[in-house]
Amino acid sequence: MRLENLLKGFERMGQFQSNLKKATQIATKMGSASDRIQSATTRSITKATRTTLSVNFKSQEANQQVLDLTKQFSAAFQQAVDNIHSVAQEFERMDNELHNTFR
């Protein structure tokens, strides 16, 4: 009876299998968003050079800070995308291994 219950438990495990296709779709969409963010960080910002207003200088500093933060965010976001791909592939590999083991 215990073996039978164990086997039923393994049959139900299939309900919790990872979904590589879905994870890949999500990571691909996130990757596209990451590409757009990265693209925004490479666009040049036209700076006013003929003014001596301190507000202009402070605005340029603020723009540079936002650009730096956006670049940091973009790198971290891309790392998350890469991690999703990697983890999904590892779960898929483990699912297949378990499926083959308990066939």
UniProtKB/TrEMBL annotation:
It comes from the Bacteria. This is Type VII secretion effector. It comes from Bacillus cereus HuA3-9.
